[in-house]
Amino acid sequence: MARLLAACALALCAGGCFYPASRGQVLEARVDRLQSENDALRAELKSTRGQLESTLPKIDEKVAEVTRALEALDKASRRSDADNSVLLQKTVEDIASLRGQLETYQHQLQELRQALERVQEETEQKMLSMLGPEAAKAYQERKKLEELERPTDPKAFLALADEKAKAGEPGIARKLYDEFLRKWPNGELSGEAHFSLGELYYKDDKCREALFEFGKVIQEFAKTRSAPDALLYSADCFGRLKMNDESRLALEEIVKSYPKSAAAKTAKSKLAALDKAEKKPAPKKGKR
Predict the structure, then answer these.
(1) d(Cα 125, Cα 121) in Å, to the nearest integer?
(2) Which three-class secondary structure state does DSSP give residue 201?
(3) Same domain as 156, residue 88
(4) Is residue 288 situated within a structural domain?
(5) Can you give the three-state secondary structure of 229-257, one letter per residue?
(6) Alpha-carbon span 7 to 9, nearest angstrom
(7) What's the whole-model pTM score?
(8) How do residues 170-179 score in pLDDT, each as one tens digit?
């Protein structure tokens, strides 16, 4: 064979034929690629063999597990109906016993909860009696406030505060108004919150605190619907504090700034009464 190839080569050379170098390079590249692919296939085969070797024990283990389960089922199927009835009856009795224990525990837990509530209530009553009426009232208000759910909507929040004020719970209402103003200090309803808070102070005859809240309405929320009434209340508070000039100024401001309001009509009546009182001559002193 070798001689034949050599002879063919010699014949080719003698015939003036030759093998191009570029063709040889192409063949070499193909051989290299085939060698690379062969190496990759060999590596993949090795990896697959390793995975198979690691998987086989798990498969054997699963087969053994299934075999054991089948044997257990076979044994169970060979049991007599009597055995199954006894086992079922025992299971029913165990469940009934557990249910009875659970009901007992629930009853005991309920009794403990009731006893704890009684102790807490008695302790609270003793503490309140020691604090005195004012402190006890404040404590009750704080407790109600903690349990009270606050709306996230400002309109609903303000409505809740107004509701507590109308229900005769001014302490809770004041706290709610304060919370509202901390949450929405510059909202469109803030002027109403200041006015309602000032009104509560006014009803408690706390004129200085009321004047502060009414002043907020007049200075920062002059366009709110309660602004004329805030001035009217302010005039009354000034009168109670013997600040007659300030009281007159507040009444005049109502007539000037809110001439069409119901408060303006009341302010005119009060101003007329003041003018009449000032024009009334002082009583003459009797002769000695």
Answers:
(1) 6
(2) helix
(3) no
(4) no
(5) HHHHHHHHHHHHCCCHHHHHHHHHHHHHH
(6) 5
(7) 0.53
(8) 989 999 999 9
